[in-house]
Amino acid sequence: LPLEAKSSVKLTANIPLLQLTDFNREKLIKENKLSADSLIVNVANADFQWLNKVGDKIIKGEKKSKKEKENFTFDINTAQIKIKGSTLKLENEKNEVSNWQNRETSLTLKDLSYPKDKSPSVFSGVYVKDFVVENVYTKNVSFSGNTLILKNTFYNSKNKKGEIENFSFEKRDKSSRANILNVKINNWDAFKYVATNELHFGSVLSSKTDLFLTIKNSDEKAFKNQHFLPFKKVKIDQLTSKNINLNVFHEEKDRNFHVRQANLKINSVNLDSTIFIKSLHKNIASLSFNGKDYKEDIGDNYTINAGNYAFSYPKSTLSAYDIKVKSRYDRFKFSEHIKYQTDWFDLKFASLKLSGIDIDKLINEELYVEKATVEKAEFTVLRDLNVPLDTTKYVPLPQESLRKVNYPFKIDTISVSADIKVFILPKDGGGLGVISFNELEGAIYGLSSLPSKHTLHLIAEGKLNNSGDFWAAAEFPFPSKKSEFTLRGYVGPMDISTLNDMLIPIAAVEVRSGINEELTFNLKGNNDYAKGAMSFRYSKLKVNILDRKTYKSSGLSNSLRTFFANSFVVRGRNPNFFKLNEGVIFFERNKSRSVFNFWSKSLLSGAVSSIGISKNEGEAEEYEEEGID
Description:
The chain is 13% helix and 56% strand. By secondary structure, the protein is mainly beta. The termini are far apart. It is built from ten helices and 30 strands. Strand 24 and strand 25 form a beta hairpin. The strands form two sheets. The chain has a 28-stranded mixed beta sheet that branches. Strands 7-8 form a two-stranded antiparallel ribbon.
């Protein structure tokens, strides 16, 4: 058939063997028909070049009569073509070149005939009942310079099964590459594909996949656009990929994402010739993805690891187990790597579960989750007060922090079970202060960065220093210009001396004896200050004032201060003589500190007011006119 005038085709081949068996010479002479039992063609090498106008339409000649069409016919029971080596060169009108290399290609055709008087067919007008193709090695360098390699490819049209031992791809700039092993294809009808340009696989399975991807900022826009496939339709009943190892490098953010030993299973993939990435999930019936040893860097100092994780669609649930967020440095060495006070922390979760993930919003860069559950968390925090505090740094309260989040998100409910330990290293090196919140059960409702009117609720209960029961509740209304909040809570009966692990190294004060019978508090605050009331019922309170150098109560000076404190300053009991001395909570916020520091200092002001050490009424009255909404 003639091609466009500007196109040219060149084929050169070395064929050392062309053999026909049971060849009917008489039919060839009298009927112009080639008839044989078998045809064997061995090709040592073949070079094919198609230059310019690649893919241009073939010029249609005049319609031939039926007699002309059938002027030559052939009928061969079995044809076997073996090509030891071949090359294919394609050149487009931009003078870009694509090269193909093949080694050890074998094609076996059963019941090969022309003209086609039956179906199915592989080539127009040519009938083939079944065929088998095998190829040891194929390499393609595309017009854009990307490289594709296939090793040990096999397909049998009779049982509709195929295999690719090794599939590899690498971009020209080596920014991304893929290597897929042992791809098995079942129930693919090649004849139907040729007739309809529709791909339909019963199943596709691979045993191992290694992927390295580099994401550039410009690439992110491509995911929002529609893409076109060279097929009318693509359908895969089941797609299974085992042992996926993925390394994604985000060039702009300079971050690595690692996925190891993952498994992917997708049921019923249905795609048209035009696909939209944002709605791709709607073209599958179900998806499950699970893996091991997930790893990601968080900034310069931390990494996050997950032992096992799994995602399911359309249930839209994500589960992760054995999660660890760890610093690259020991807690006492961390201070050597920071300029200003920053918390060192170590975080472990037995499990994290997200349910009700809105996939449509997620694809559109918005996170919506109905419920998040954190189970058996262990959270350890240390702050070294020997490192300077950056007093120029502004730390916003939750409302303002959430307003500044660029990524829209909303989590309806977060439930947490955890144990928390907070360590403080004082400036004078007087030991390590520690306080713990044990058997904590908490919940957060309405965590969101969206500018809607709502209230963020925090609720927690557990044990303080493995001793007294406690509960606390905080509310943050949205919107709020001054970041208003309320905080209320309760601490049940406990030995107050259990707080010595924090009081001795931080305040150089030791509780010799004391029983908390009940402590309740209720306060309101904003970005400037907090004020409220505390009811602290206790008895038998005695304290020791310690020497800052030795942290001991011995010595005349310390004894006198201790005697004076217990006799004239500290109330030994509350209520005293049937009168309850209510503590006044008042604290002006240090805006270089977190909300938790703000809360703890506010509660401490109420406690010292209750036992008689400090009076906060005067300071609180100065702010009375401002009010707290």
